[in-house]
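Posting this for the archive.
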Amino acid sequence: MMEKEQTALQLIAEAARCPVYEAERILALMEKLGINEKGFALLMNVAPFTVRLWTSGASQPSGTAMRLMQIFETAPEIVSKIAGESENRRIVNGRERNNSVGKNIEKNR
């Protein structure tokens, strides 16, 4: 096994179980990130109604959503990178494109 592969497997094997994100923890994460329900829904790529269900305790996020929340909780700077990336998007030929990609498309017309 290559050293790079072994390192990735070791990281995965050593990773702690994903914590359970119940209503109080989700609300605390939203506060930590400084975003409201709508902003959190955009960040998580879910409907605001879904966030409302999570924060009311009527529903629990999926395992994947909880892992994403863990990432945002552990490294909140990622959120600003994601937000910066989305600000650099624009519509080209009816499709949302990253500015650099869009410029390349316009050059090749």
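DSSP finds seven helices and two strands in the chain. The radius of gyration is 18 Å.
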